[in-house]
Amino acid sequence: MAALPILLFEDKIMETVEKNSVVVIIGETGSGKSTQLSQILHRRGYTRSGAIAITQPRRVAAVSVSRRVAYEVGVQLGEEVGYAIRFEDRTSDKTCIKYLTDGVLLRESLSNPELDQYSVIILDEAHERSLNTDILLGLMKRLVKLRSSNLKVLITSATLDGVKVSKFFSGCPVVNVPGTLFPVEMLYSSERPKSYFDASFRTALDIHSREPPGDILIFMTGQDDIDKMVSKLEEKIQNLDEGSCMDALVLPLHGTLPPELQVRVFSPAPPDCRRIIVSTNIAETSLTVDGVVYVIDTGYVKQRQYNPSTGMYSLDVVQISRVQADQRAGRAGRTRPGKCYRLYPSIVYHEELLDATVPEIQRSSLAGTVLYLKSLNLPDIDILTFDFLDAPSRESLADALMQLYVIDAIDAAGMITHVGRTMAELPLEPSLSRTLIEADELGCLSQALTVAAVLSAEIALRPIQRNAKDSKSKEQPLQLPDGSRWGDHIQLLQIYESWDRADYDSDWCINHNLQVRSMKFSKDVRKQLSQIMQKISKGPVDVQSSLRHRKGEHDYRSLRKALCKGYGNQLAERMIHHNGFRTLGYRSQLVQVHPSSALETNEDGRLSDYVVYHELISTSRPFMRNVCAVDMAWVMPIMKKLEKMDVYKLSGGLEAAITKPVEHEAHQQANKEINSSGTGDSVERKIQAARERYLARKGKK
Ligand code: ADP
Ligand code: MG
């Protein structure tokens, strides 16, 4: 095999790294950035003074790339080469090449702000613009000044946004590694297909029956569609006339695929067999699949967006950006000339697609990030003036501050509290970490740990759709506990407790139609969380979760109270005259309990008057997902807090930023458009009022 482009540029890269603390490296996907840079640095002695950290925005990439590198270096995974992702650490004292998610590196910097165990930090896949990588970019800027003599920072990207990043790092050098891409012929559809699923299916079959050998890569938007496509293609291909075309192997590829199934994508096709890989956008730049000659680009991607004015998430299928379309096409020309079938007209590509994807920081809830930055406690870091590559909107920063205030993580003056500091130590979203702390006070920590673990291993309790042909028995799955009417959190707890009583038996999971792997993962997560809580808790912590001998309250009062505290203003009140709930606090709107919820009416046929929810999701209409019934008495203190809240004060010493002239007007505008579906006016008004008060005061001085 020809040497990877990165290896051909080894001397140039090393010369630049030697002379500079920050270097941007731009190279096509598949050029060897993720797998080779770390090995080069290792060979050149950079691991003598510390380990090399390579961040990945995606968990699956951290695992897959480290496995590959361990293989290339010829060591056991977890020894010299290892990985660390949330709730899973496969490193040892020997590890000197460590792949980790950007989130894990952020957490490491909490306990060790100088990150002095590392001699090199590589922020890989910077073009993905993940929220955590963006924050790390800001932190690195500060860190290279502190550790100028013994730290190298490399930022790698597959697309040409190097100039912007270089500017951000006061003009650091950019090394371009030209790829050896073969020409890719573009084939556009004359119009948008009615169903992108059907169009992809037809196109794939068409290529398979007419085109010469070469693998096909189809970009779909999500796991459900991928699974559907895989079985539809398999069925069709089996039924093709024997000898009419070569054999085909259809493979799914997505982030939640078990490792043993991912591996198949990296092994070459059997002789006389074409591979058809059906993937999410993970194959766009994160994972390189060799052998692809035909790409089918549906033009869509599933994107999670947060709207700070409504507190609502939506998981939307949106158009990809032009950069993404180019990346997808590029996958076809890695080994020889290829073809890219764009299932949209060329005018869409040229005129409709955005130039680049909106960075995650501008479409995420920032409560966790703001809490994290506040807990860093660095005198020269001020959240609202934090040096972002692209700043988030003031609205989403204000939203984060308000959420943190309601759950006592910051005080009215915007200072981080003792509770807030403790929360930051837990690898959980703020609502769940707050719940654990409250549960510890109320004596129901063990239950809360279970709920937090199961919710964090989110996929855990989604029942598997069993095909008739797969299921060995014709029996119906056994009934799961029902949450005793209190809702989904209690149901999750009861399910886990039943499994515990069954001695964590795998058959129990199978009989109840639950994924064994996911259940085991939640058990592991629970153990890790309890180990962290052991350091924090006032009493002994039930690490092994031996639930059998403890008798619980039958109405789960303490746990529900702790959840109410943790969720803060993720709170809704039942509307007497409407068929639904109204969310409370500063973002009032009508919502419904998700139909899949375990929440039930009481003896009088009435739903609880108040619920807390884990998430607001906007699909066909706004739904609350994972709800828990709570008492009015617990709601009142939260309402009081919300009434007295003043965003201006919350921003505390940070008012300068809220009132600072907006530097990123264009991005603010873009962000506005994304978020314009809700009622953010009141927040905006408050900020505006704060700004005016501030300016007035300044004028008086
Ligand atoms: P980049 O990060 O620049 O996109 P990578 O370092 O991920 O590139 O990949 C470089 C090459 O290494 C790929 O072209 C592929 O041939 C090979 N490769 C990467 N990961 C694997 C893997 N898990 N299994 C087999 N080959 C791999
Ligand atoms: Mg890579």
UniProtKB/TrEMBL annotation:
Protein name, per record: RNA helicase
InterPro entries referenced in this protein's UniProt entry, alphabetically: AAA+_ATPase, AAA_22, DEAD-box_helicase_OB_fold, DNA/RNA_helicase_DEAH_CS, HA2_WH, Helicase-assoc_dom, Helicase_ATP-bd, Helicase_C-like
PROSITE patterns: DEAH_ATP_HELICASE, HELICASE_ATP_BIND_1, HELICASE_CTER
SMART domains: AAA, DEXDc, HA2, HELICc
Endpoints of the signal sequence: none
Residues annotated as domain Helicase ATP-binding: 14-178
Gene3D superfamilies named in the record: 1.20.120.1080, P-loop containing nucleotide triphosphate hydrolases
Naturally occurring in which organism (per UniProt): Platanthera zijinensis
Lineage of producing organism: Eukaryota, Viridiplantae, Streptophyta, Embryophyta, Tracheophyta
Catalytic activity: ATP + H2O = ADP + phosphate + H(+)
Record bears the keyword Ribonucleoprotein: no
Pfam families: AAA_22, HA2_C, Helicase_C, OB_NTP_bind, WHD_HA2
Listed EC numbers: 3.6.4.13
